[in-house]
């Protein structure tokens, strides 16, 4: 050897190769080698102990022995890992739910993109691809067209001559989404007509509510005629009561004069309502 240190290294190497290292067996040591220092021995003890002894996991208030954890932190890390694997985090579930598409969202997308359509509605200026199942679910009139021996069932084609394209588009969007946004008076009247024609009850009710809320002495005659034409007694009574309560402003309007000339029957029924109201007040 060149020096004393080289000689000692050589001795260590040959000693480890020929002498057995000690391993723990209960409280005894089985000789299978000679450790160069105390730390080497402790490292090998830990490794072999973890391989042969079960680690402990919590089950309720008891510990199930499946290994020997070297420190408290290791035990807590393993507990957390197994807990996350078996008990999903509420936060992760919320994020998962947020990422889901609702049925309504999916239907709107199918309508907008015109995917998987099996029928068409045709107006004077535009054709709308639609899904029979959606229209049938919302309208008994469409359901009858698509399920009975009518030409619409055979042709998969519905011609609409009395509604403009904008009204049909908004009617269809409501049927797919149940959404009715940015409604104004003329649109409400047109959609009311469409809803009554195809017996879309929820749409008709929304339009009726809008007309009631926006009733004025300048349009009450128009709404009264609409309600009478579609035999909507609820809306008709509401308008008649409005006229009775605002009789002076209504009767002094040009709309009322035109209404008297063109719809005398409705004027008579409205006046009868006014007289009955006064009589009830006196009694």
TrEMBL record:
The highest taxon in the source lineage is Eukaryota
Q: Which Gene3D superfamilies would you find in this protein's record? A: 1.25.40.420, Potassium Channel Kv1.1, Chain A
Ranges annotated as biased composition (Polar residues): 8-25
An example of a Pfam family matching this protein is BTB
Q: Which residues form the BTB domain?
A: 117-184
Where are the stretches annotated Disordered? 1-25
| Protein name as it appears in the record | Speckle-type POZ protein like
Protein source organism? Argiope bruennichi
């Amino acid at each position: 050897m060149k020096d004393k240190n080289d000689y000692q290294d050589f001795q260590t190497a040959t000693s480890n190769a020929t002498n057995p290292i000690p391993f723990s067996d209960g409280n005894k040591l089985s000789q299978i080698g000679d450790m160069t220092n105390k730390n080497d021995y402790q490292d090998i003890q830990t490794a072999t102990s973890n391989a042969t002894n079960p680690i402990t996991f919590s089950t309720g208030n008891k510990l199930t022995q499946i290994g020997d954890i070297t420190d408290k932190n290791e035990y807590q890390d393993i507990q957390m890992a197994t807990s996350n694997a078996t008990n999903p985090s509420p936060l992760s579930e919320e994020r998962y739910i947020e990422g889901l598409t609702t049925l309504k969202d999916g239907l709107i997308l199918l309508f907008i993109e015109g995917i998987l359509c099996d029928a068409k509605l045709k107006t004077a200026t535009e054709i709308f691809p639609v899904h029979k199942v959606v229209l049938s679910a919302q309208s008994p009139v469409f359901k009858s067209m698509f399920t009975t021996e009518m030409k619409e069932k055979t042709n998969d084609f519905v011609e609409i001559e009395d509604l403009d394209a904008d009204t049909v588009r908004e009617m269809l969007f409501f049927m797919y989404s149940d959404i009715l946004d940015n409604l104004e008076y003329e649109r409400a009247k047109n959609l009311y007509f469409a809803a009554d024609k195809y017996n879309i009850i929820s749409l008709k009710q929304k339009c009726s509510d809008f007309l009631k809320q926006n009733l004025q002495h300048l349009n009450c005659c128009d709404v009264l005629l609409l309600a009478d034409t579609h035999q909507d007694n609820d809306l008709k009574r509401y308008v008649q009561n409005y006229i009775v309560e605002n009789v002076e402003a209504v009767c002094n309007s040009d709309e009322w004069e035109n209404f008297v000339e063109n719809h005398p029957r409705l004027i008579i029924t409205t006046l009868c309502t006014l007289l009955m109201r006064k009589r009830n007040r006196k009694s």
